[in-house]
Hints:
The protein has 2 helices and no strands. With 103 residues, it is mainly alpha-helical.
Amino acid sequence: MISNDTAKKLHDRASRGEALSAEEQKRLLDWYATQDTAESKLLELTTSEKRVVSLQSQVDAALKQLMTVTKRIQEVASENETLRREIAALRHQLVQQLGAQPA
């Protein structure tokens, strides 16, 4: 394995059209392969991070929706309780009215 500095010098020479020895060419190609592998791993990590962010966004949206539905359920439950009380009061009034009427 060659140092990055040496590899960069070889790359510079090759990109300027200078001839490299067979050994220098092999070392440069090996360095390119190492750089490609490192870049691929970095891109995979970035893709994984993007997936995590996307999934977290989906979880956040689901939680927001769940909170909205939960709030609506609580509102309906409260309305139902109010209606139950009103029905009980009306039944009580009806029983009193029926009991007060002459037979």
